[in-house]
Target: RING-type domain-containing protein
Amino acid sequence: MSTSQAEFYTVPTLPPEAIADAALVFLSDHEKAGAYPPGSREDFQPSRSSAAPSIEVTAPFETDGDASNVLVPLLPTATADATPREVPSLLRFVDNTLMQSAPIHNRPRHAHDICSICFRQGVEQKIVSDNGRGSSMNVPAVTSTFLPLWPCGHWVHYRCLIWRATRTNAEKDKCPVCNIQLYQWEGITALTLATRTRIDMEDIVKVKSADLTPLAHSDEVEFATECATIDSLIHANFFAELANPSQFTDDSPNLIQVFYNVIDALERMEKPAARWLRYFTPLGRLLYGMFVAIKLQRYLVASHAKIQGTEGWVEFEEGAKTLQGKILDEVRKA
Model:
């Protein structure tokens, strides 16, 4: 690390990070508690510099030289082999497919139609609220959008649908009435929507199959452990990058390269392994990449605040915006 680089940084003390704080919140800018998300969101503006490399989650990677070179994936990304039917990912189903019927939301054909999940009658009423550990749904109703599922047309409350997606049963991705598959379930996408909608993921404690003796971990513990692993990789790779010559005039580190190195290390460790972070769709892969990028950003802000505004920081933020744009493009695919 050069003398000029050293002035930006201090040896960090990694603060404890709450489970909820580690979850994704980047898609929640226009969401109101209990309300169905709007049909459109503000796109990020194009990068101010055409030379700024984008963050593309296709790790593990090979790079030749600095991070502005072309990144070559060594493993294929998720393919149609994992999705035998034309079924959308959960996030695309919620933010795109269901929005096609927005003009009739809260306007069921029959005034006495009830939600197929909570069985509450009446528009904009829901009963979903629990602590993520199987507590009763018998709580006071609150406002939520009433909408028809696609393709079957059965009506549910938006928050009831998200609550169902956070459960651990095998039917969570199916209509509760006709059992047709609605979307492709994956942990990282369910976590994204659960965080945005302020609903806890259901947590299952692992038990031994022989005597049902509880093990020392659950879905929540696995998630926290994997988050700690990501934090450690970010810390190690950030300081490793500081030892490399800087490509910037202000001698700041290449944060894009730090991101790629962390993703590469996670792939080699066969992560994600935690159920709440797993993915198999292209959109899930992008969401996981954004999850890592957010954690890297929080680490830098908390432990190396002086890096904000440097050339390396600006390039990293541009890459994160590009990644978010790719997520929105994937959501809006026909």
User: Anything to note?
Assistant: The CA atoms of residues 98 and 107 lie 14 Å apart. The longest helix spans residues 219-242. The chain has two domains: 3-44+51-80+212-331, 86-200.
